[in-house]
Amino acid sequence: MTNQERMTFMALEAKLKKTKYRIDFIPANQLGDGYWEFYSVDEKGYEYGRENFFSIAQLTETVNDYLNI
Fold first, then answer.
1. Is the separation of the CB atoms in 20 and 68 below 8 Å?
2. Considering just the CA atoms, what is the radius of gyration of the chain in Å?
3. Angle, helix 56-66 to helix 3-16, in steps of 10 degrees
4. How far apart are CA 59 and CA 56, in angstroms?
């Protein structure tokens, strides 16, 4: 993850902090590139609806769509 991607990711995390949505960064390994995950968490803590993104721009667009920004 580049510094610009890290700054964008941190800003997105801050936007999502008080919502039911979460994001994670999955680092690259021998099997492939790193990617971002976007998902929801219900009141019991169950995670569902995971979506994977290979671009921080795509992740940002999706987060903004879900938050109606």
1. no
2. 12
3. 10
4. 5
